[in-house]
Amino acid sequence: MLQFDHRHSIDLHFAIPVSLPGCLPGAEVVADWPLDARFSGRQTSVSEAAGAGPVDRMNKEHYPFRMFLLGPFALVDAGGRSVAPKSKKAQALLAMLALSTRGSRSRIWLRDKLWSDRSDDQAAASLRQALLDIHKSLGPARDLLIADKNTVWLDTDRLVLDTDLVIRTERSPDQVTDELLEGIDIRDPEFEDWLALERQNWYRRLDEGQVHDVFEPRQQPSRDVAKHSALLPLTGAPDTSSTGKSVDIASSGPYGRRGGGGWQWMMALLSPIVVGAGEGGQIAATRFQNLIAKAIIDGLGFGVTDLSFTLPDIEGNEQQISLPICLQLRLTFDGDMVLIELVMKHLINNRIHWLGSQAINRTQFERGEFGIAAALISQAVDQLAYFQEIQATDSRLSQDGLLIDAVNAIFRLSRDDLDNAERRLEEQIQYQPRSSTFAWLSFIRTFQVGQRFNALDAHLIEEAQAYARKALELDPQNSVSLALVGHVHSFLFGEYDYAANLFEKSIRLNPALPLGWDLYAMLHCYAGQPDKAVAMARWVQELGVYSPHKYYFDTTKCIAAALAGDHAAAIAAGEEALRTRPNFNSLLRYLASSHAHSNDLGGARHYLERLEAVEGDFSITAFRGSGYPLLDTGGGQILIDGLLKAGAKLR
C-alpha cells in the first residue's frame, strides 16, 4: 500500500503572476537603509516614503540583513558589512530562495536550475559546496540559511529585500532603471529561463504595485527570437542520425516522416500576416506562431511545417498531405490595441473551417504577454482534433488519430472507456511510440485510483512510475507529458516539489495548454493552498471555455472553491460539470459537501445518494483510507465535515 507522507516541507514555485516573490510579512515594516541613489537618494522609511510621516527606524535585531536584487547582487548585515559569498552560483542560490514564495526550494530544484549540465552526483556535490560557501560568508549568522536532505530554507523573517521597498514606495516603472540581478552570469540554460521569468514577474509587480487575485499569465520571451524561424525552435527534441548528430527538422521536407518515434508531417502553418506594426509586432507574431506550433505538436502529435512551397506543388502532391488544412495567423495593430485572428482553412480551395479572434493590449502583446489570447490557440488545437477525427478515412490517418481517440475516451471517465483508451494507447505505441502516449498511460492510473476502479496496490503504482519515466526520457520538452507526469507525482506520490517543477516547465513551454494550468491548480489543492488554486482554476475556465473537456476544468474550479469555503462558487461550477458527467464521483462528493455547508440538506442528501449509487461502499473511513491527497489539509477537513453533515456513513 502506498503511504502518503504529508510531513515534509511543501516547496512550491509559482512561475505565474498570482505568486509574487519576496513579500514582507507585515505592512508596517520600515527600513533605515538607503534605497540607493538609484531610487531615492536619501535614507527613507517605507511608511514615510508613502506619505505616512516619520516613523521609528528599523529594528536591526529583527531585520539584520538586507539583500539587493536590483542591480548587482549584494547581501549586507545590520552594520553594512557585506556577507555575500564570492561564488556567483552561491549568490544566485540566495537570490532564488529570496524570490521564492516561502523562502525555500528543494535540493532537486536548485540542482536542476544551477547545474543542469552535470550528473546528479556532481550536481549534488556542487550544491553542497555552494551551501558551505554561503555558511562561511555568513559566519556566526549561518543559521540564516538552513538545509536538510530535501530542502533549503532562507529565514526571510530576518531579511529585507530592496524589491519590496520599491513596490511599497509606489515607484513607477520608468523610475526604476536597474535590472533584476544585473550582471549575474551563470551560463546555465535552466537558470537563464528562470531569471527571464522572474524579471517578467518583477516588471508586472512594478506595473501593478500590488498583488491581485487575477490570472493573466505572462509568456516567457524566447531568447534571440528574432533570429529564429516561426516554427523550428519549438518542434520538440531533435532527431538524431546514426552518427548521433542533430538532424535539421526542415530537411525532412513538408511531407517527411521522422523515424524512431517521431511524428508524421500532417499540416502546415502559413506565414503570418502583420498589418500596422513595426519590428515589435513582427517579433510578437513569431512568438505567437511558435506557441501555435508547440501546442499542436505536443497536444496532438501532429507534424508541423511552414508552407514554403508553391500552390502547384501542393496540387501536384495533394495525396502526400495527410491533413489537407492549414492555420494562418493575422495581426492587425491599431493604436494601443492588436486584433489577433487565427484561421483554419483548406490548403487548396481556401475554404474556412474555423475562425477565432481576440483583441488585447498592444504593449502587453509585444512584450509576449498573450494572456487570454492564448485561448485562441487552445481552441485551434481542439478544432484540429475534431477535423482530424471526422477526416480519418484511410488506415494511416486512423493510426495517427489513435492518440486523439484515446484522450477523448479517457475524459469520458467510465471504466470501459478507460480500458478502451488504454488499448488504443498501447496500439499507438506499437505504431509510433511517443512521449505523450506514455504520459497518458501513466495519467490513466490516477483516474483508476481516484475513482476507485482499481485497488491502490504496488503493481499499479509501479506501472504509473514506469510510464512517467519513459515519457520524460522520450521527450523532456513535451509540455503535455510534463503536465501529466507532474500530476502523477503530485496525486499518487505527494511529491509536490518535483511536480511543481514539472508544471512550471510545462507552462513555460506552452502557456496555451489548459490541462497544464488545470493540473497545477490541483497541486495547490493537494498542498493545502485552495485560494491560489481558485485563482488558477478561474484562468483555466477562460482558457478552455470551448474545450470538449470543459467539464474537467469546471470540476477543478468546484474542488478548489469547496476547499476554500466558497460553496456557492463550488456548487455553480460543479453542477455545470455534472451536466456532462452525471456519474463523476469526485464531483458528487464535493457537491454533497458544499450543499450541506450551505444548509441545503435536501440537496446534500440527493448528491450523497447519487455518490453511493456510484460507490456502493462509500464511507468516511474508506475515503480516508484510499490515499486521496488533501484530506489532511484544512480544506480536506471542510470536505469531510460537509459529507458528515450530509449524512455520509462514518464506516
From TrEMBL:
Gene Ontology process terms (BP): regulation of DNA-templated transcription
GO terms for MF: DNA binding
InterPro entries listed in its UniProt record: AfsR-DnrI-RedD_regulator, Sig_transdc_resp-reg_C-effctor, TPR-like_helical_dom_sf, WH-like_DNA-bd_sf
Name the record gives this protein: SARP family transcriptional regulator
UniProt source species: Rhizobium sophorae
